[in-house]
Design goal:
This protein has 1 helix and 36 strands. The protein has about 500 residues and is mainly beta. The strands form 8 sheets. Strands 3, 4, 6, 7, 8 and 9 form a 6-stranded antiparallel sheet that branches.
Length: about 500
């Protein structure tokens, strides 16, 4: 199997391939090749006829004879020494400056073997076949480059052996080099694939990218009609189209359609724009009934919803005494409601706001009459009040605890006592009253009794007593304080 490779030639004359090594050609999608071929079929002339069979020639390839008239006689069968015509000769790719063709080896290579292939070109209206490659190449794919726009020509390929050139395989249709057309395509941004919502007064700025070569023509419509140039500005570049509205109004809502046209092809994209504003208040409101601590309300929907659907209603109440409004219900959908837990003896006003995506309506529907919550006719029968006697003799709820202290560091003794009336607190050491001694400080607050001993020494060790006395009796608690030390030398000055 012969390996495929590419060869390049200019439109001025044949040119040898830069390399006979295998290369993978870049081909355009089959759909675009077919479109180019069909474009060439519009004025396809009758291709130049194939030359008659040639006699065996020397080892060097001979130039193909000029094409004969369309009604040429049928060529005689070729000799067994020359190869047969290549198979599956086809057009692989056509651009605005090059053409690529491919083929398969012939069924018969001839008894002397195959030396290569010669690709020839004949321009439309001419009769001479010009070789693209000056010498045979062992390739099954060639690319002719540097062609001019508007060129129209036929191509054929023949296999060559040392005995001569075999019959050629000719493309049925001529090749037409023309400007490639890239079909227009619009890429709508993701956020515009659903309804684009703006508020009244906000700007609208739509930038829609598109593709197409050469530059396509872009146009906009609003609900199927031409745009109002007084309100809408459009700027179209090579790759996008921008629609701008400085201050959107509700009349700007609708379907905006962008159409991109190129050479009979077109692409369309529709963008839905919705311009909204705050809704109006409910049309009317009235107080249906008042019973117990409840009030029933009813209202009618607003006449203007702000060009969008309502999200619900907000119900508020206000006490006549304070005049402050408090929200009772939010985003409430029905048009009737019952307000409960009202305070007996108060009179209430109610108001209702409409709400949509822009927020609450600027005003509310307010009830004209007050909802008065009446007091029930209940006669209170107070029972006789018996005053309780809280008098109590002293009793210690928390006794003193034995304590050990260090010489020179102040220490405190704690206990708690309960008594009514308030008792008198007496502190004693070894059953001797120590009140008035500056070494001690006694405190009593909320029934908590505290004795602070300032910088104690071992001589301050002993039994301390807290005694509580009132008119109903007395009580006392004891504890032992031990101040550890080696002597007077250990006592801090």
């Amino acid at each position: 199997m012969t390996e495929k490779a590419t060869s390049e030639a200019s439109d001025c004359g044949p040119e040898e391939s830069a390399s006979e090594s295998a290369q993978a050609p870049t081909t355009e999608p089959a759909g675009e090749v077919a479109a180019l071929e069909s474009a060439g079929e519009e004025r396809a002339p009758t291709p130049p006829p194939e030359p008659a069979s040639q006699a065996p020639a020397p080892a060097a390839p001979t130039a193909p004879t000029a094409p004969t008239a369309p009604q040429a006689t049928k060529p005689t069968p070729p000799s067994e020494d020359v190869p047969s015509a290549p198979l599956l000769f086809a057009l692989e790719d056509v651009s605005d400056s090059s053409v690529t063709v491919s083929w398969e080896p012939p069924e018969s290579l001839g008894r002397l073997g195959l030396q290569g292939y010669v690709l020839e070109l004949c321009r439309e209206g001419a009769s001479e076949w010009v070789p693209v490659n000056a010498r045979p190449l062992m390739v099954t794919q060639l690319t002719v480059r540097n062609l001019a726009l508007g060129d129209k020509f036929f191509l054929r390929v023949a296999a060559v052996s040392s005995a001569g050139t075999g019959p050629p395989a000719v493309l049925e249709q001529p090749v037409h080099i023309q400007k490639l057309i890239e079909a227009p395509k619009i890429r709508v941004p993701r956020h515009l694939r659903q309804t684009y919502i703006r508020q009244v007064g906000e700007p609208v700025n739509l930038q829609i990218p598109f593709q197409g070569s050469p530059k396509p023509q872009a146009s906009w419509t609003h609900n199927g009609h031409a745009l109002d140039s007084q309100r809408v500005n459009v700027r179209t570049g090579d790759q996008d189209s921008i629609l701008f509205i400085r201050s959107a109004q509700r009349s700007d809502s609708g379907c905006y359609e962008l159409t991109v046209r190129l050479e009979g092809l077109e692409a369309k994209a529709a963008i839905d724009i919705l311009v909204i504003e705050k809704p109006g208040p409910p049309s009317s409101i009235r107080l249906l009934d008042v019973w117990g601590c409840n009030a029933a309300l009813e209202w009618t929907p607003p006449q203007d919803t702000g060009n969008t659907e309502l999200l619900g209603y907000t119900v508020q109440k206000a006490d006549k005494k304070t005049g402050q409004w408090f929200t009772v219900l939010e985003r409430y959908h029905p048009t009737t409601c019952t307000i409960s837990d009202l305070i007996v003896g108060n009179a209430y006003s109610f108001r209702v706001f409409s709400e949509n995506q822009c927020g609450l309506s600027t005003s509310a529907a307010t009830t004209k009459e007050l909802a008065r919550i009446q007091k029930a006719d209940i006669v209170a029968k107070p029972k006789g009040f018996v005053e309780r006697d809280f008098s109590e003799a002293p009793s210690f709820t928390q006794p003193l605890a034995d304590h050990t202290s260090t010489p020179g560091y102040s220490t405190q003794l704690f206990c708690s006592v309960r008594a009514s009336p308030k008792p008198k607190i007496i502190w004693m050491k070894n059953k001797m009253n120590i009140q008035g001694d500056p070494k001690y400080r006694a405190l009593s607050e909320q029934g908590v009794c505290t004795l602070e001993i300032r910088k104690p020494s071992p001589f301050d060790s002993g039994v301390y007593t807290c005694k509580a006395v009132n008119v109903l009796g007395e009580a006392s608690v004891d504890c032992r304080l031990e101040v550890k030390g080696k002597g007077m030398g250990n006592v801090l000055p």
